[in-house]
């Protein structure tokens, strides 16, 4: 069976199979070191039956943990989570915080900063932080700890000096937050609406102020009543990007299909927690105690508290809903890269990082390459 790594003396390495490129499917060979060096082959209408499928590595912009480790515990937890998610095809990710005190957030940012700058062997590349809270509505906490406060540019920039802040989730209806959106965007930081009680007009105003996306669309936000359109309706009517948890638990399949028709570059995130990749049992989400049970993570009162989804399963779920493999791949790789403004990953093209996943015809992972380095999935 082709699609396995050919190792030998220094020089390009090669994978052969059905390759998804920016121009569509190709039957051929990708050669690479840390970056992709060459693509050779012939155009194809789709994946060739019975042959390996080579896709861009997955990019997850919302990860709270994995492998038993919670991001709020610091650097070692981030590295553990990055290793666990890499074994499910995630080659780049954002470490995502929850509501916490200023002191705790500074501690976490200071510990995560080196993981961003140095990376690690065998783990997804940590691109920076997604600050989910504390600038959210206390009336729409979901599973977030009770530690909210108004957002300020000064607090975000102080954290950004310790570790790059790539995304800030906030509730745009809170006093001063529309102005904060503009200020953060001017600093090159993406802003998302989430954990919000804002209505449709507030959502539209936030988009006009520079809001770029919506955090776990439909969850922890006002919905879509026909005479009371909420934040989700603003996303469906006007957004170019939004993130969605495609575990088929957080959002009904019918609503996923509706969002896919409405939002051109809807992309999937896991909202993965410490319970990802672990057996059922108790875990932490920041200061909250949560329990993994039957594929979901919940607080004691039953509130969903993140997920145990992995992006390889998200891809399979999307295909199961009727998406083509090409479309599903874009929604776990390319669109997230585009949203963050990354031009070195998210697609298989010469000069881009050799972040690659190889899947069998049943869309089960057989190999993962992180900047050209192979993971041993058997020993993971």
Quick structural gist:
This protein is α/β, with parallel strands linked by helices and about 375 residues long.
What are the salient characteristics of this protein?
disordered N terminus; 2 domains; 380 residues; seven-stranded mixed beta sheet; six-stranded parallel beta sheet; 10 helices; alpha/beta; Urease, subunit C, domain 1
Task: Characterise the protein shown here.
The protein is of the alpha/beta class and 380 residues long. It folds into 2 domains: 13-55 and 347-374, Roll (Urease, subunit C, domain 1); 58-340, TIM Barrel, CATH 3.20.20.140. Helices cover 26% and strands 29% of the residues. It has 10 helices and 23 strands. The protein has helices at 75-86, 102-118, 153-160, 177-186, 200-209, 231-238, 253-262, 311-320, 325-330, 334-340, and strands at 13-21, 24-32, 36-44, 53-56, 58-63, 65-66, 69-70, 90-96, 125-132, 165-170, 190-193, 213-214, 224-225, 228-229, 241-245, 265-269, 281-285, 288-293, 296-298, 304-307, 356-359, 365-370, 373-374. The strands form 6 sheets. It has a 7-stranded mixed sheet, with no helix packed on it. A 6-stranded parallel sheet has the order 5-8-9-10-11-12, with helices on both faces. A 4-stranded antiparallel sheet has the order 17-18-19-20, with no helix packed on it. Strand 15 (241-245), helix 7 (253-262) and strand 16 form a beta-alpha-beta unit. Mean pLDDT is 94; it is low at 1-10.
Helix/strand layout:
Elements lengths: L12 E9 L2 E9 L3 E9 L8 E4 L1 E6 L1 E2 L2 E2 L4 H12 L3 E7 L5 H17 L6 E8 L20 H8 L4 E6 L6 H10 L3 E4 L6 H10 L3 E2 L9 E2 L2 E2 L1 H8 L2 E5 L7 H10 L2 E5 L11 E5 L2 E6 L2 E3 L5 E4 L3 H10 L4 H6 L3 H7 L15 E4 L5 E6 L2 E2 L6
Parallel strand pairs: 1-4, 5-8, 8-9, 9-10, 10-11, 11-12, 15-16
Antiparallel strand pairs: 1-2, 2-3, 4-21, 6-7, 13-14, 17-18, 18-19, 19-20, 21-22, 22-23
Helix pairs in contact: 2-3, 5-6
């Amino acid at each position: 069976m082709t699609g396995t790594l050919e190792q030998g003396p220094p020089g390009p390495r090669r994978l052969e199979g059905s390759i998804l490129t920016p121009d569509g499917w190709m039957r051929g060979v990708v050669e690479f070191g840390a970056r992709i060096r060459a693509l050779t082959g012939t155009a194809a209408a789709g994946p060739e039956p019975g042959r390996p499928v080579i896709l861009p590595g997955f990019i997850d912009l919302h990860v709270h943990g994995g492998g038993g480790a919670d991001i709020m515990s610091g650097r070692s937890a981030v590295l553990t989570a990055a290793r666990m998610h890499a074994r499910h095809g995630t080659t780049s990710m954002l470490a995502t915080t929850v509501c916490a005190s200023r002191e705790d957030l500074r501690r976490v940012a200071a510990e995560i900063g080196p993981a961003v700058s140095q990376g690690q062997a065998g783990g997804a590349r940590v691109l920076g932080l997604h600050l989910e809270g504390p600038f959210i509505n206390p009336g729409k906490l979901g599973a977030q700890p009770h530690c909210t406060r108004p957002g300020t540019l000064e607090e975000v920039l102080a954290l950004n000096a310790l570790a790059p802040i790539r995304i800030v989730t906030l509730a745009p209806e809170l006093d001063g937050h529309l102005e904060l959106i503009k200020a953060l965007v001017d600093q090159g930081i993406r802003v998302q609406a989430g954990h919000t009680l804002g209505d449709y007009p507030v959502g539209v105003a936030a988009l006009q102020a520079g809001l770029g996306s919506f955090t776990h669309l439909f969850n922890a936000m006002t919905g879509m009543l026909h005479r009371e359109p909420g934040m989700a309706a603003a996303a469906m009517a006007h957004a170019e990007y939004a993130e969605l948890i495609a575990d088929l638990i957080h959002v009904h399949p019918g609503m996923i299909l509706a969002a896919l028709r409405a939002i051109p570059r809807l992309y999937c995130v896991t909202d993965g927690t410490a319970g990802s990749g672990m057996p059922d049992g108790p875990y932490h989400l920041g200061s909250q105690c949560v329990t993994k049970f039957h594929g979901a993570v919940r607080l004691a009162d039953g509130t969903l508290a993140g997920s145990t989804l992995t992006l390889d399963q998200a891809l399979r779920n999307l295909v199961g809903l009727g998406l083509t493999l090409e479309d599903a791949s874009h929604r776990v790789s390319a669109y997230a890269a585009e949203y963050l403004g990354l031009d070195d990953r998210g697609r298989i093209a010469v000069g881009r990082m050799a972040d690659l996943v190889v899947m069998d015809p049943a869309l089960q992972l057989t190999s993962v390459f992180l900047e050209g380095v192979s993971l041993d999935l058997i020993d993971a």
